[in-house]
Amino acid sequence: MSAPTMAERVEEYLTYRRALGYQVRTEGELLRSFARYADESGHHGPVTTELALRWARLPERAARLYQARRLEIVRTLTRYLAPREPGTEIPARGLLGPAHARRPAFLYSEAQIAALVEAARSLAPSAGLRPLTYATLIGLLACTGLRIGEALALGAGDIDFDAGVVTVRQTKFHKTRLVPLHATSVRPLRDYAQARGRLQRGPAGTAFFISENGCTLPYTTVRQTFHRLLQKAMPGAAPVGRVRPRLHDLRHTFVCRRLLEWYGDGTPIERAIDQLSAYLGHVKVTDTYWYLTGVPELLALACQRFERFADPKEMTHDPQL
């Protein structure tokens, strides 16, 4: 029996990962690219470190972090193949440097969020559904911290207006969770739901956020529109490092504001952060703890708290200890 092609190896691995609950969208695309490169270059036999490095370094001018990430993805494939296919080489970790680095978070002010919503309301057509769609979408992201993919995947029946709860279905690892809404956010969502039924030109869609024609909004379209709204609402906004404000930073802003408020009112962070982690849909609470070190304002508060903890004279005066 002939040896499997690299494409066949990759598809077997992706099937295995999906069975465990992983969506492997980006990873799958990159691994299929690796498989095409291997098969078209005439490679036969198990994966080698040399083959993995050749592919990972493409394109040559790509950022080092991107190349390291490509190599790390092939490394996960080889770890799966090695017990099944003797001769498979697992590239050493870090051959091209670190494969992961969190980008700095941009924290929106309340005024900036309000300006984005107002800019969305001015989108064309002025009497159509599009301005309401983007204004409501930005407002929902800002007040709940939902991931943009979760918001775009909401179904028309996923918001219980009477209970004030959003059902987020089949997100990371096929998890479903309930997200309570603040009372002030229910009315705009209800108004949008009524408007979408009145203003959409096409057949009724199943998604909550839809285009003028009743279709689900593609992420690429939403991202491009958001960038135009940024230019209009925040033309002078200074980026964090080299990173300009992004859609995902609305989620960062939501989390940081909540943590800052908890620090301010003396809420025990070590207990409340578990609840916040579940609310956000984080797989690990350590993903939520990142905000305590990744944002200067929160890091300063955490340092102050540690100083009080380390000083015996202050221990009895700190309500969080």
UniProtKB/TrEMBL annotation:
The protein's UniProt keywords, in alphabetical order, are:
DNA recombination, DNA-binding
| Pfam families with a match to the protein in the record | Phage_integrase
**GO MF term set:** DNA binding
**Which positions are tagged coiled coil?**
none
Is the Protein biosynthesis keyword given for this protein? no
Q: Does the keyword Zinc-finger apply?
A: no
InterPro entries (alphabetical): DNA_brk_join_enz, Integrase-like_cat_sf, Integrase_catalytic, Tyrosine_recombinase_XerCD
GO process terms (BP): DNA integration; DNA recombination
**PROSITE patterns given in the database record:** TYR_RECOMBINASE
Q: Which residues form the Tyr recombinase domain?
A: 102-304
Tell me the protein family, please. Answer: Belongs to the 'phage' integrase family.
The name of this protein is: Site-specific recombinase XerD
